[in-house]
Amino acid sequence: MDLCIIGSGYVGLVSGACFAEVGHHVVCVDNDQRKVEMLQAGKIPIYEPGLEDLVHRNVASKRLRFTNSIEDGVDNSEVIFIAVPTPPQTDGSVDLTYIEKVAREIAGVLKPGAYRVIVDKSTVPVKTGERVEATIKRYNKDAEFAVVSNPEFLREGCAVPDLMNPDRVVIGSSSNRATDLMKRVYEPFKAPILVTDVNSAELIKHAANSFLSLKISYINAVAAICEASGADVEMVADGIGMDKRIGRNFLNAGIGYGGSCFPKDVKAFIAIARQLGTPFALLEEVEEINAMQLTRFIDKIRESLWVLKDKKLAVWGMTFKPDTDDVRNSVAIELINRLAAEGAHVTAYDPKGAEKAVEWKLIDPTKVTLAATPLEAVAGAEALIIATEWHEFANQDFAAVNASMHTPLVFDGRNLFDPSTMREFGFTYHAVGRPAPAR
Ligand code: UDX
């Protein structure tokens, strides 16, 4: 099929590459000319395992191309996906100006007699599809089209496998013709397809992400009880998670959830519920617990080191989770900045995220030192803090790490290490929700 994706960010670019990989002809549109030129030159603006190969292969086989012209995309495609940003506003509600602008632009280039399916892939509040449809009709009375909601559930860091093997594909549509075309788009993926009305599909995305955030806050609240009682949250999570009705996924205690989805989507869902007159106080508690989690972790560091000012601290991890270079809304970055604000001398290391943290001015390189290796970061440190659970951190030479540190003290904010192994290496090891080391 001929498909167009408007917006070449995480969702748009990975979706475009995966649609091409299964045999569709895809044109990715972006209004950022620099990004389009980069992509045309084979350069990928984001780090996502497997994406570069996928893009190169499909560009070479002429199934994937990039343009800045919406008209080109809309003229040559029967299904048009909208994958533009839907950033949060200061009150937590979703800024839909990019969606509205794209809807108008599509309306401006839709030709009479050429039926098109306009698919919203961006995360949007319930009832946005109705607005998109009304907008296109307002600006183009003759257009023949249907608006469909098709939320995307990919996770950063495993976006390609998530897209190639989704748990489910949700198609929100009130038109049989559009639903049939959407089923053909997804036919090669062999995934379970759930067809709903447009409003339900839109709601599924916010409800799913909020529920996952709730799971994380739930286990983090349990972790606090574990710390107070001497229980081990990892064992508790295993015990809870073995119940198939609950499941072990997203029950990893830590310093809280971050990234560009969960914090924003929980806030948006709270705002949507409030606007609809059905307040969702439970989600406000989810946010509260998430915020407290980092504060409690820093309190724990302070409890051991007393005054943080002038203490040399090593932090491993800057990205909001492993296997990505994304540092936006990263709890690790907030941790680093809060330690630095207390006057600690922080040396941070991250396998992928350091450059972007500086480029996007999320950390101040005059206040935070960046190390080229994990070992370099710990040299002379009075404590090592794990902020992101990168796999490479688990495979360090811990005898060398210990020898290099001023004091062998570890605060593991992601429960990455086995406590007994760390203690065998001579570390005083603190984790989240796990029994504290003997004093
Ligand atoms: C999420 C959803 O998983 C995905 O379906 C949706 O499309 C976009 O939002 P993503 O933000 O890429 O994906 O990351 P995810 O792996 O879900 O992790 C989000 C945050 O939760 C990270 O900061 C992670 O460290 C944290 N997390 C996750 C926990 O603290 N504990 C867990 O058990 C799982």
Characterization of this structure:
The structure is a single chain. The protein has helices spanning 10-21, 33-40, 51-60, 70-75, 97-109, 128-139, 159-164, 176-186, 198-229, 233-241, 262-275, 281-305, 331-341, 354-359, 374-378, 391-394, 398-404, 419-424; strands at residues 2-6, 25-29, 64-67, 79-82, 116-120, 145-149, 169-172, 193-196, 312-316, 345-349, 368-370, 383-386, 409-412, 428-430. The chain has 439 residues and is of the alpha/beta class. It has two domains: 2-196, Rossmann fold, CATH 3.40.50.720; 211-430, NAD(P)-binding Rossmann-like Domain (Rossmann fold), CATH 3.40.50. Strands 3-2-1-4-5-6 form a six-stranded parallel beta sheet, with helices on both faces. Helix 1 (10-21) crosses helix 3 (51-60), helix 5 runs parallel beside helix 6 (128-139) and helix 11 packs antiparallel against helix 12. It starts with a strand and ends in a 9-residue tail after the last strand. The model has no long low-confidence stretch (mean pLDDT 96). Bound molecules: uridine-5'-diphosphate-xylopyranose. Uridine-5'-diphosphate-xylopyranose binds at residues 152-156, 209, 212, 216, 250-252, 254, 257-259, 261-262, 320-321.
Spell out the blueprint of helices and strands.
Layout: E1 2-6, H1 10-21, E2 25-29, H2 33-40, H3 51-60, E3 64-67, H4 70-75, E4 79-82, H5 97-109, E5 116-120, H6 128-139, E6 145-149, H7 159-164, E7 169-172, H8 176-186, E8 193-196, H9 198-229, H10 233-241, H11 262-275, H12 281-305, E9 312-316, H13 331-341, E10 345-349, H14 354-359, E11 368-370, H15 374-378, E12 383-386, H16 391-394, H17 398-404, E13 409-412, H18 419-424, E14 428-430
Parallel strand pairs: 1-2, 1-4, 2-3, 4-5, 5-6, 7-8, 9-10, 9-12, 10-11, 12-13, 13-14
Helix pairs in contact: 1-3, 5-6, 9-11, 9-12, 11-12
The structure holds uridine-5'-diphosphate-xylopyranose (UDX).
The site of uridine-5'-diphosphate-xylopyranose has 19 residues, from helix 9.
